[in-house]
């Protein structure tokens, strides 16, 4: 679906999506296209024809807990939007697929097999002049039966503490300014932690280094070099984290799905949790 020697067939090109728009616009649930953004204003303005719009903030996380959806709520959300557990789902979104990658990870957490990312995301689709519409996709409801959850791809605070003790690689994908503790969040975004810095021993490999200028992922060779230069290799466990778990999903996707690393987890609690824990160990500075 994309012309690259990645470990797994997990990316689709914009050309492939365009050539299959009739299937994505059909009420038949075999194919579903989903745009995932931090809000739905961009989707309401324009989106790929047939794309369902998911609001990451209000639809893809529990509204009373800092947590992903329950298995039951995940099934309800997908079923109500015409997505079955047999659907081939293609996800894309803003910020080079930050929230789409998070959603991909959540799909895998609940055992959905046929799920892919649109390489380059929303910006690439628009910048390259692919077709758009403002018509909201509306499909008949279907039954969705999730599997899992598959905890092997998710890390919790205890896993981070264990990683520190055992010297397991931690990949902090935030900006150098967030990693050093200079700032608590990217400019313009809500600060969600009491303290700045990073988990002791974590390597700062920014999510932005995994993609090209147009938002598409770099080659397998470039990605391998990026992580191996920081000592992050496929002979050990790896834990990725960021601020709220969305940017670290990009790193999880690159390591697990593109490079084929065997044991990669996404710490979705990320700095929102760790930076607010009482007595949690924190380092500041560049780490060099």
Automatic annotation (TrEMBL):
<dbReference type="InterPro" id="IPR001307">
    <property type="entry name" value="Thiosulphate_STrfase_CS"/>
</dbReference>
<dbReference type="InterPro" id="IPR036873">
    <property type="entry name" value="Rhodanese-like_dom_sf"/>
</dbReference>
<keyword id="KW-0677">Repeat</keyword>
<keyword id="KW-0808">Transferase</keyword>
<feature type="domain" description="Rhodanese">
    <location>
        <begin position="164"/>
        <end position="283"/>
    </location>
</feature>
<dbReference type="Pfam" id="PF00581">
    <property type="entry name" value="Rhodanese"/>
</dbReference>
<feature type="domain" description="Rhodanese">
    <location>
        <begin position="27"/>
        <end position="134"/>
    </location>
</feature>
<dbReference type="InterPro" id="IPR051126">
    <property type="entry name" value="Thiosulfate_sulfurtransferase"/>
</dbReference>
<dbReference type="InterPro" id="IPR001763">
    <property type="entry name" value="Rhodanese-like_dom"/>
</dbReference>
<dbReference type="GO" id="GO:0004792">
    <property type="term" value="F:thiosulfate-cyanide sulfurtransferase activity"/>
</dbReference>
<protein>
    <recommendedName>
        <fullName>Sulfurtransferase</fullName>
    </recommendedName>
</protein>
